[in-house]
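Record type: ASSEMBLY
Status: queued
Input:
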Amino acid sequence: MNTEKKLIIEAGRTEKHYWLDLWRYRELFYFLAWRDILVRYKQTVIGFVWALIRPFLTMVVFTVVFGKLARLPSEGAPYPILVFAAMLPWQFFSNSLAEASGSLIGNANLISKVYFPRLIIPASSIITGFVDFLISALILAGLMMWYHFVPDWRIVTLPFFVAIAFAAAMGCGLWLTALNAKYRDFRYIVPFIVQLGLYISPVGFSSSIIPQKWRLLYSLNPMVGVIDGFRWAILGGQSAVYMPGFLISTGVVLLALVSGIWYFRKTEKTFADVI
Amino acid sequence: MDDTVIKVDNLSKKYILSHRQRESYAALRDVITRGVQNLGRKILSPFSGSQSSTTEEFFALKDVSFEIKRGDRVGIIGRNGAGKSTLLKLLSRITEPSNGRIEITGRVASLLEVGTGFHPELTGRENIYLNGAILGMARMEIKRKFDEIVAFAEIERFLDTPVKRYSSGMYVRLAFAVAANLEPEILLVDEVLAVGDAQFQKKCVGKMEEVSKNKGRTVLFVSHNMGIVAQLCEKTIVLEKGVLVFNNDTPLAIDFYSKRGSQNIKKIQREDLSDKTNQFISVKNVDEALKEAEAFDYDEEINLLVELNLSRWSQFLELAISLYDKDKKRIFTILEPLAKYYTGEKIMRFQITIPAKFIAPGRYSWLMCMPLPGIENYDLLDDICKFNVLETGSEFARYYGRDYGVVFARYKIKKLKLLG
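Status: finished
Output:
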């Protein structure tokens, strides 16, 4: 009996055991992610193939427009692989933003009825984005076989860049989720960010074509570092990472992650009242 | 070790009502414009503060304190908006208090609505796992209880059907079954029993009783249904406008609540009469000297004075008066065709006398209206002019407080000779 923990609820009391609580609710986290994945392609005819078709078609269009028509440089790799190496993290990022920002509202009934660390909801929706990421990684593997493209040792560093992509998706996702719970304006802002971001991030082209004097500024876009990293790891050979830019970009990602968690936790307690 | 599992101290929850905006959520535009406005105001008159006159504080709960011991089953009753659900939300950590403190020992599970988190596309089996996780069960625990849950819900055949194809009864049964097989130390329940058929409700009440009696769990139960509260809970808390007004044994609390029940309209007195409809001008209880009264001795006549405004006369118009007991159960109805008394006047006045030694001590109220049978009920006044009949020495005085009925029976009894 003495092992029972005493819970104290007070106004403005920051939960000391927040991270412990998060750990305790890990099963809920699995189940929510599992539910989102299970439900995602229910009542569709071709199911998870959608996760393949969308990035593949975008890749085809970008290859034609930027590679064939504009004849941009390809860092020595086949243009489709150049595009797809960037498409992977970008799709992950943009899907995560879209899913996460709507996730609180989609689960409003849960939030107003049951307690659990709210962080679980956007986090589990980012996991669904990650599953799509893994599925579309199959396309990349297919493309590499098609072009007989063999990556060098750098491929083993890929998980590191995946982690940065995760941090970027999580950080920006948390900001948008928390803001969207209170200000529904973000319902309209998010699709816009996602659409615009595709063109201002180096997805269809290599970031080496950006003039040198703008590159630092350009690196403020958190996805620039991630995408460059992905290309560096996957394409190998001639592709190089512009180090100052990569550090700035990664710094922005970490800042977004830390501040995102901070802002989310700050507003979390009022979600049930405002949603 | 102390046996108190829930300790609530001066708990308050405040909401800010804004009269400015109609939307339920803030639009960014509003926040920005308001910020600019406030800034402008500050520049123009820097010492006036930024207090906007259009916001209003509203206390959903105010300074509520109580303690609950291990194994207690406690009811929480109160009218809509009394703060019952807010209290449960605070206890279950869904929202944060504005003031005060709660101490809880043990695992809390709340059942604020059955089927929370059910996903219509998922099957019954999948939803059991999902819902269990949402309610705080570990996967192993759900696995262990799976068969029990399915049996309780009586849905064996539909386990692999998406719940969107379930009937609403099956849905509720499944949802309750998951929740009922939770094993928290403290269970918070809100109105879930309002759904489902009578038989299933009985099963649910039984399950909750079993959980608390045999396993020593604490149950907090919010409901409008006095019957279930009376059956299930030993103690009851009465909330009124966010304030705890009563906290004691259930029968006392229910008695208290029904007395505070509706606002007591002592009498009806209307000034603004319409000439388009039939209305009561005034209704009041009076004693034998025709003085207004609220309490009558049991051996005193009860008089009701009624004044009618008959702007739409019809020869079929009736006067209908019913007497309610404290639970709003109808004791009798008087029905008088008005044509019997009509001599062309626009205003009629009646005195209705209930004989002495007829109504048993207790609390009563009236229902009245003027029906035009099958066409319209003019001016229905429900639960008005409450009055008390006092126990001042009837033959049942020794049984005061017991329920021996609401009327003293008129009967004959005679002793019969034994045959043979």
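Annotation: The interface with chain A takes residues 1, 15, 25-29, 31, 89-106, 108, 110, 112-113, 116-117, 119, 121-122, 126, 129-130, 133-136, 138-139, 185 of chain B (CB under 8 Å).
Annotation: Confidence is low (pLDDT under 50) at residues 48-53 of chain B.
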